[in-house]
Amino acid sequence: MSEETTNKQEMPEQLSDILLVLDKEKMKIQAVKSIDENGKMETVDPTKKNQNQFMRVDKSGDFFSNFFSNFFSQLKNPTNFTFFKVPASVAAEKAEELQKHVDKPTPQGEKVLKEHEVKAEPQPDKKQENQNNMATAQTTTETSEYRYKPEQIDWDTMKNLGLSKEYLEKRNLLDPLLRGYKTNELLPIGINLGGSILRTDARLSLQQAEDGNVIVAIHGIKREPNLHFEFFGHKFTDEDKKNLLETGNMGRVVNLVNSKTGDLMPSIISIDRLTNDVVALRTEFIKIPDEIKGVKLNDEQKQTLMEGKPLYLEGMISSKGTEFSATVQFNADKRYVEFLFDRSNNNQQAQTNQQNTQQSNQQSQPQEAPRTFRGKELDDEQYNKFKAGQTIYVELKDKKDQPYKGYITFDKDTGKTNFEFPGQYKARVEPAETHKTQTAVNSEGKTNEATKNVQEPLKSGQQRPKNEKQQEQQDNKPAKSKGRKM
């Protein structure tokens, strides 16, 4: 550090602030001690015993802003750290408080961290690569920060893939790329292999190589998620696999291992439903909204979503103004809270079918009916009817092991399994059957056992004699004479 900074470390406590830092890989709060000429930061435990080693900074607004901007620009790997400013007199106590919020994230704790967080302000006459990187590391889909610029993209490579800037802009796909995300849909690309050209569908993203250049990453479609091997040190349990295949989200926080440093990274895991990639997101980047479709979330509900767990919400209002209920869950790939409507074990295959159907250069193929639906294996009789397209009755259990019943039908064209609760099924089928009976008797000359002797046309929905006269006709009894006795 400069001589000016060294002198500032000797300021009285009431006129100075302490700079605390959170190493995002170690998830540990430390006090900043110094920074060397190579941009490596020295830290110490934020205890009262070490307070004479803390870097002290003039708490004057303008001076602090200038100091921190200079400090940040000298720092090596700035995106690995989050900084906090606290009064020197209570630095140790504040550090302990912040560490508790880091160890056990809560919506309230997130507010406390934000209150003390320090961010580098943009300098108009300097390059902003480091600042942009730090902002992007903490960005969500709601922010307006961009990680890359259009001129950083290798457009020659894009051209070789059959893509152009104009095409991406027209499809509204350039914006998510510049924000550091994957394209939100599959793109048809062609890869020249010399003697042949490979054509496939894939999602694209931009990544920064070690030399600083921005490269195009291609995320091709996999047949199924690779859950049989360890993922950054995490071995998937049977429950993990079941959750990921059924909902696309694992439903819990696990410690992943940084392959370079060996440090633990608390993260949630989801499946990219377009490509079947396994995707992780560190918990520090999870942002939970205060309200979902008109329902305000309390702290307990927010904490459930922060932990990657599913949450059932009632009384939400759709864009059409109708009330509905659904399960919601934070998705690591999408980086927001998504709705989980009816899904089956055939979810991944069905989605792949849908993607193939949407591609104009591909033809849809008949799909094989799944033998298992929501964990329920069909017996031979059920399965034969099911794969033939017939509707079958099934008894199932939800995630809380509570039983429920319904009807399922397999659509060969889309590969989807349609589910209906008994009430929905009867409301759809019974009126149709009633109308069929009426038409058959009145128009086609067919008979219904319950009304075959009735001589009058049946009314809408009628399947039985409607009065005493029709009942007598049905029973073959002669009608009563109304003449006078002689």
From TrEMBL:
Biased composition (Low complexity): 130-143, 348-367
Biased composition (Polar residues): 437-464
Protein origin, superkingdom: Bacteria
Species classification: Bacteria, Pseudomonadati, Bacteroidota, Flavobacteriia, Flavobacteriales
Protein name per its UniProtKB record: DUF3945 domain-containing protein
Annotated stretches, region: Disordered: 97-145, 348-382, 431-486
Comp. bias regions, Basic and acidic residues: 111-129, 465-478
Domain DUF3945: 289-342, 374-421
Domain annotation DUF4099: ranges: 148-229
Organism: Chryseobacterium gambrini
